Amino acid sequence: xxxxxxxxxxxxxxxxLNVYKRYPVTLVKGLxxxxxxxxxxxxxxxxxxxxxxxxxxxxxxxxxxxxKQAEAMTFYSNVFxxxxxxxxxxxxxxxxxxDVYKIYLTxxxxxxxxxxxxxxxxxxxxxxxxxxxxxxxxxxxxxIGITGxxxxxxxxxxxxxxxxFAKLGDMATVEQLYDEDTAAVICxxxxxxxxxxxxxxxxxxxxxxxxxxxxxxxxIDEVQTGCGRNGMDIxxxxxxxxxxxxxxxxxxxxxxxxxxxxxxxxxxxAKVEVYDHxxxxxxxPIPCAASLAVxxxxxxxxxxSEVARKSRRIIEGVQNISGVKNVLGMxxxxxxxxxxxxxxxxxxxxxxxxxxxxxxxxTVVRITPPLVISDEDIDRFLEIFSSxxxxxx
Length: 393
Description:
Aspartate Aminotransferase, domain 2, 2 domains, 4-stranded mixed β-sheet, 15 helices, 16 strands
């Protein structure tokens, strides 16, 4: 019997559940901000796999840390202590000083936000959460409920009963939604998939003051703004000078391996009890080893000031491109806004060897390059992007 071997795309389409809209490209190799497909075509990566590949592809420090840990021990459950997890907890806690937080390691941003919601509801004895329109917090049932992009609400029960949505930057809408059954406010400070919308710094201070006044928890979702991507500090919260009760993060924390973190202020952590929450794979030694390499890099020398410099270089270059209305966001978490629908732009850039991201706003595309992006790659990005934009005037 003769059989024809399927290529990767054919095989995936036959055997995988159809939940993704994929580009017809099979990536096989990467280095820094460059990727290659199985036909040998090179791509410049200005999306970093949903802002996950913070150190780019095959960063030497991350690769060495993974290899070294894999040779020592791959995994055991967290019913035993693990030195990589303990070291990472210490490293993350030190980046938050002088505020004191306890660290909980899990696998994804969705799981981190689930844990934050459970803590808020258990400790307060209240059910309701205030979120924000156009915010994104994950794809589990609970996180869909607090996500303000309404197209994600196909599966969520009791949306109106337990979650309400304020407008980011408008404290009056927050105050109007509060009642005696409110447990917490959760805020994605830069709404990435929502079009890179953010509020003035004063709003985050007002939001913190409101939560303190009402005795409710403030949860800041730094799944994307954390781990240096905001360009000002390792944490957006520290960059703007607020002190959340809970901070969640994921994405770039382990440069591509599945890891996430919930940072719980000591005053709240003291009330969390054994068996309140758990995870099987959270804090595995290999992802933690990778994350330690990430944080060593983030905290070394002038790394963060270099992220800020690269951000300015990109923003200045993009602002000079004809048709660009505005550059949104901060650091290397940026949205490029046009006056017209540019939904075509993402695929057109891909056709020219540049990977960027879309958003829920048809006039905004997102760029989230690796934090280690080089000046050479920035210049190449500006050249390709400008050329593709000019194709349709």
